[in-house]
């Protein structure tokens, strides 16, 4: 199965540097324009359906992509929603580390739960859209954790994903593999991931 994980378009909270998480902030006009521009770079002939997380910014991004590409919107999945950042949501990202050292936010969804949750969503999508080539609109932190779960790396070492960036994965013989990360080949990104892991091991 071929599947592309796409980060939703910009919201006002993204623009203003606020931690967003599960808070259901809509796209702004820039986010809508980003979706239109991204659709123009995708080949409709290479994809069959568009799905998304259940949060509004992802659903609207999916609808804009689908309309431009002439593809159906084929579902929204709770397990694709962004990590819940608890008490930190709505806080300036620049102030997060000072307020909560180690990013131990009250009521935060545990980091180790995010990747497996995202994989469950992909498995459900694969079951419900067997053989289809799927565009799945989700969220930056969720996508990084999913990719890390597949590759065995630390999600914190994955690069930040821009709005409407595309990360492709595939499933063969019941195993998921990372193909690209934000438009870059996984082979290229893996060098930096492995180097970061080596530094952690040496420091330990």
Walkthrough of the structure:
This protein is of the alpha/beta class and 204 residues long. It has helices spanning 12-15, 29-41, 56-69, 93-99, 111-128, 140-151, 186-203, and strands at 2-7, 49-53, 73-77, 133-138, 166-172, 175-178, 180-181, 184-185. The strands form 2 sheets. A 6-stranded mixed beta sheet has the order 3-2-4-1-5-6, sandwiched between helices. A two-stranded antiparallel sheet has the order 7-8. α2 (29-41) packs parallel to α3 (56-69) and α5 crosses α6 (140-151). It is globular and about 50 Å long.
Could you give the count of β-strands? Answer: 8
Proper CATH architecture: 3-Layer(aba) Sandwich
* Residue fraction in strands: 15-25%
Span between termini: 38 Å
Characterize the main sheet: 6 strands, mixed
> What portion of residues is helical?
40-55%
Overall mean pLDDT score?
96
* Tally of separate helices: 7
Radius of gyration from CA coordinates: 17 Å
Biggest sheet, spatial arrangement of strands: 3-2-4-1-5-6
Task: Outline the low-pLDDT stretches.
Answer: none
Annotation keywords:
204 residues, alpha/beta, Rossmann fold, 6-stranded mixed sheet, two-stranded antiparallel ribbon, 7 helices, 8 strands, 18% strand, globular, PG/BPGM_mutase_AS, hydrolase
Quick overview:
This protein has helices spanning 12-15, 29-41, 56-69, 93-99, 111-128, 140-151, 186-203, and strands at residues 2-7, 49-53, 73-77, 133-138, 166-172, 175-178, 180-181, 184-185. The protein is of the alpha/beta class.
Provide the fold topology.
Elements: E1 2-7, H1 12-15, H2 29-41, E2 49-53, H3 56-69, E3 73-77, H4 93-99, H5 111-128, E4 133-138, H6 140-151, E5 166-172, E6 175-178, E7 180-181, E8 184-185, H7 186-203
Parallel strand pairs: 1-4, 2-3, 2-4
Antiparallel strand pairs: 1-5, 5-6, 7-8
Helix pairs in contact: 2-3, 5-6
């Amino acid at each position: 199965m071929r599947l592309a994980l796409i980060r939703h378009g910009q919201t006002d909270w993204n623009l203003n540097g606020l931690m967003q998480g599960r808070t259901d902030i809509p796209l702004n006009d820039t986010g809508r324009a980003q979706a239109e521009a991204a659709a123009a770079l995708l080949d409709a002939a290479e994809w069959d359906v568009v799905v998304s997380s259940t949060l509004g910014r992802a659903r609207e991004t999916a609808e804009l992509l689908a309309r431009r590409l002439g593809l159906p919107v084929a579902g929204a999945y709770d397990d694709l929603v962004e990590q819940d950042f608890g008490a930190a949501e709505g806080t300036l990202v620049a102030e997060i580390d000072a307020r909560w050292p180690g990013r131990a936010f009250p009521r935060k969804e545990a980091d180790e739960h995010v990747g497996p949750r995202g994989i469950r969503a992909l498995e459900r999508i694969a079951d419900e859209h067997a053989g289809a080539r799927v565009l799945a609109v989700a969220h930056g932190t969720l996508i990084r954790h999913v990719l890390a779960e597949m590759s065995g790396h630390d999600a914190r070492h994955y690069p930040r994903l821009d709005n409407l960036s595309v990360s492709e994965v595939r499933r063969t013989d019941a195993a998921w593999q990372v193909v690209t990360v934000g438009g870059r080949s996984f082979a290229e990104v893996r060098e930096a991931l492995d180097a970061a892991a080596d530094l952690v091991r040496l420091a330990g």
